Amino acid sequence: MKSGKIALQGSPNRALLGTTLGFFFGFAAVSLYGPTAIKFKEAMGLTPAMMGLLVAIPTLSGSLLRIPFGAWVDTTGGKRPFMILLILSIIGLGGVTYLLNTAYPDNMTGLFPLILFLGFLSGAGIATFSVGIAQTSYWFPRKKQGWALGTYAGLGNLAPGIFSIILPFYLQAYGFISAYFAWFLFLVTGTILYALIAKNTFYFQYKKAGFSVPESKEMAAKLGQEMFPSGNVKDSLVNSAKVRNTWALVALYFTTFGGFIGLTAWFPIYWNQLHDFTVVKAGLFTAIFSITASLIRVYGGTLSDKLGGEKTSLIAMFVVLGSSLCLSFVQSVEIGLILAIIMALGMGINNAAVFKLVPDYVPKAVGGASGWIGGLGAFGGFAIPPIMGAIAGMQGEIGYAHGFLVFAIMSVISIIIIALLMKQRR
Predict the structure, then answer these.
(1) Which one-letter DSSP state was computed for residue 226?
(2) Average pLDDT over residues 187-215
């Protein structure tokens, strides 16, 4: 046991700034692979299936790594796992940049497995989401959870939308190898900013200084901290997995956050194949969807604080249901854009509502629950586009519209889940 005072660092707002910046910059790598996949195809003779794997591999690591790294927050406070994920992403993106500068285009033959591995590492930056969710949760009181988590995720999730606007113009002006180097520098800058700004909560600072767990909790509670972890990484994952409602939240998040990631990749194809848009125009329309879903998430957190997570989620899911049904049968550009924006509103609000509910349902293993929900939920971004592509492959051009029926079905399932949660709450 250690007595005496230590120099505590950080504040809730500073922590929120650090995690938001870290998550935003962590998204840097994945925005590159889709628009530049054709370049790899030309240099290495990739089949369509290999191209699909190349584009999807960062999303795969970005979802699965959320599970263990999110749980790790409950033992370390978050900064260490966050930094490791950002460094892994730097290694991946830096490795691809090096290969392109030294081997492209004539010496790329046989490098596909290495490119895949580096792409997997690049996606680690996306996995910072679950770490930041748990790290932010421990800083804020319950009454501000919705606002804090909505702000963190909403502003952090702006990255894909902003990159969808910038990248087509950058590629045209400077070329795709230059783009990889620029995004690499962008990621390094973000990692440095996170390292300088982010701090663990007072509980973890006391614990690191040598105080016992009960002492750390008692002293941190006097400073306003309301939530504390229990157990190690394994305990956090196991304890949260034993809570049935963790899996209900996984399903809700799979539909709207997995859907958000999936549609950010799918909409450029939709606008191009169904409406014959150029790459730049399709990117701009996709950016409208992505930025809307991200920004509304900030308000969704505040709305969840006022109405409650379940009620907010229910309203949002009805919005997603109605818009996805209409998108399945509409071929008008103007109406399609309006419906895409409406769907983005529903998805963003539900994404905020889900994480408002995590501290309510799994208060003693927020990190573990955030890992399961963020990881398996984001896996939807890997799983949904191939299903929509299969529908388009079977039905032809109209199949690009009918693919949105996938979201209608998932929304109905989600509405049933929310109804059961509300019944349980009563």
Answers:
(1) -
(2) 92
